[in-house]
Amino acid sequence: MTGDYFINPLVFIINTLFNFYILVLMLRLILQWVRANFYNPVAKFLVTITQPLLHPLRRSLPPIGNLDTASIVLLLALTIVKLTIVSSLISSTPSLPLLLLASMGDLIGLVFEVFKISIIIQAILSWVAPAPAAYNPITTLLYSLNEPLLRPARNVIPLMGGLDLSPLVVLLGLQVVSMFIEPLFPHLI
What we know:
By secondary structure, this protein is mainly α. It has helices spanning 4-33, 41-60, 69-90, 96-128, 137-156, 166-181. Belongs to the YggT family.
């Protein structure tokens, strides 16, 4: 048996746990940025999970305007810790500047992924259960999340035969922008 036999499952578990919490924290940050309704049950769940780590940080890192500095610092710290642990298990621990750049790249990539996946889910849900048909907490949260990106595209692209093509245009734009930005950052894992 090689060392990879035990390392690979361990790396998988560490990545999964850290990535889940980082995703939840990123969703909370983005939902704050778009001013989503935090009485929504899904938003309440996100707040409940992230509050234990964010609450102590908020005492020393107050928000700057609409920028939630505590969430950003926690996101960076968790990503740096994850990359440090996984890198040291796989090979060796990289330098702090490299970790910082790679963490920023991971988080920027995550923002793009959150928006792309949420737009795809919202488009699929709109075909299955059109908007005003029934209240669904996930649908309303997705609408709050995606509307700041979709609204400008809807203003430019008219409906074509009752079909809204703005999600397709925004997805294309997000993919192109991420293809320009993400290569600027190093990837450790």
